[in-house]
Amino acid sequence: MAEDDDFDQPSGMRSFWTGTITFGLVTVPVALYAATRPRGISLKMIGPDEAPVQRRYVCSKDGKMLDADDIVRGYQIEKGKYVVVTDDELEAIEPRKSREIDLRLFVDRDEIDPMYYERAYFLVPAGGTNKAYRLLAEVMEKNNQAGIATFVMRAKEYLVAIIAENGILRAETLRFEDELRKPEDVGLPKVTKPAPASVKKFEEQIAKRAKKLDLHDLLDDYAERLEKLIAQKEKKKADIVKAPEEIRDEDEGGGEVVDLLAVLSRSLGGSASGTKSATKKRAPAKKAPAKKKTAKKTTKKKKSA
Amino acid sequence: MAARAIWKGVVKIGTQRVPVKLYSAVVDRKVHFRLLHKADHEPVKQQLVSADSGEAVEYQEVKKAFPLTRGRMVLLEKEELEKLEPEDSRDIEVTRFVNPEEIDHRWYSRAYYLGPDGDTKSYFAAAAALERKKKEGLARWVMRDKEYVGALRADDGYLMLIVLRHAEEIIAADALQPPGGRELAQREIEMAEQLLSALHGKFEPSQFRDEYRARVMELVETKAAGRKPKVVAFRPKKSKEDKLADSLEASLASLKGAPAKRRARG
Lengths: 305, 266
Prior knowledge:
The complex is a heterodimer of chains A (305) and B (266).
Chain A: H1 4-8, E1 17-23, E2 26-34, E3 44-46, E4 53-59, E5 65-66, E6 71-78, E7 81-85, H2 87-92, E8 100-102, E9 105-108, E10 117-125, H3 131-142, E11 145-153, E12 156-165, E13 168-174, H4 183-186, H5 196-208, H6 221-236, E14 240-242, H7 260-279, H8 289-298
Parallel strand pairs in A: 1-8
Antiparallel strand pairs in A: 1-2, 2-10, 4-5, 6-7, 9-11, 10-13, 11-12, 12-13
Chain B: E1 7-13, E2 16-24, E3 34-37, E4 44-50, E5 63-67, E6 72-76, H1 78-84, E7 91-98, E8 108-116, H2 120-133, E9 136-143, E10 146-155, E11 158-164, H3 186-198, H4 211-224, H5 244-257, H6 259-263
Parallel strand pairs in B: 1-7
Antiparallel strand pairs in B: 1-2, 2-8, 5-6, 7-9, 8-11, 9-10, 10-11
């Protein structure tokens, strides 16, 4: 049975939240982008008719194919009985300031146990000027501080740490305390003091293997094997067929940007040129991030300052 | 109530072996909604369909493909993909020990507690050794046909295993150019720093509660009881622009009055 988790997932590349960060009376308009790429290589599904296969929602009773408009959210109160909750109702109980990340607390970054971090997003300046953005990034990074706040996005409240690195702001969602278990909750036995001799044995093994971190340790072996298989088959010209329009290699497709890095660079760079255009009588502010992207595409030519 | 172990394995550090059980360290507290068909309020399920004909496609009939250049794609058979899957194993192989600072917290994904599976002595010895050496181990293991990379670390005398994201998934901060512009005025930097230190405090996770979650549950209960939920209009706030120095100054001035109150949270 389908739950609303996958229904809500933003499609990676676009900015899916815009709002403001405030500290004191200073406001920083920002747009949120994912800071992680999807894992591994994504394979496409092909049906027996060689056409791409899509996932659709159907009614479990009459099998009817449904569009997003035909679907509502329900909370199960007993088996087979649901309370329907509309998006409007969910939005109505959002705090007033759900478009605002109000930083009323700054903490030393090292104080945050890494266990709390859940997901990282890049914040990109979204207003006419990026000065407040750069100022906040500068002072937080210099003093190794993180700004802490809560905010609501997509029918969920988030605890978030705003962090600056290399002059770029990130919003990192944190888990709430009650989302993390403690050893007692798990039912682990009480810590007993181990025999020094056996601790020493482990210490020796650890010392022998103490090295610097190597990013190769974090590579996805499965993806690598898959890549190899694909390359082999391409070379042998085995099972190569014409791709249907929908699943053409996106890089050569209709100019759609598929690399998150490229999208981000463009948004970060774009805001700088935005400052310049602001001096010529403040062009009409483009609010929709989707539009913004196309607007920037045309001004991609390097504007070296 | 003791949690249920989700998997059993053996931590291998060179010649040393520690049999362990895995427990999730994270609890899912999200309010989960089912998707329903609007017309009859029946649950919705997912179905694979052909993009061309719209006909239903059974999962067994689906082939996988990878798009190549020049409008081609390569088809991958099920058997070929199965061969790529890792071999079953109970080993959590720790090959390297690094300083905790070297592990970017953005790599952390899912955290598990490890509990001793029989041999308590070596379990607590391993945890104590990691603590004393101030190291985290890099581990690889296969769980339910999937390969994982993780960090083995000690936490208050216990062992934890944290699934790490793969290197390719994380965009490094220095891969991006920070937004540019005219140099910031020293006075603004100073005022912003003053503001930051006025708002400085300790990170106390217990101060923050998911209030929205409670409100969603209240909404559900109100509706379940047949009552009408209160609807309050959402008013977006207009953000003020420019005059950065003025805003900073005003912020500092307003903080001087009642710093404690402004800082209170939760």
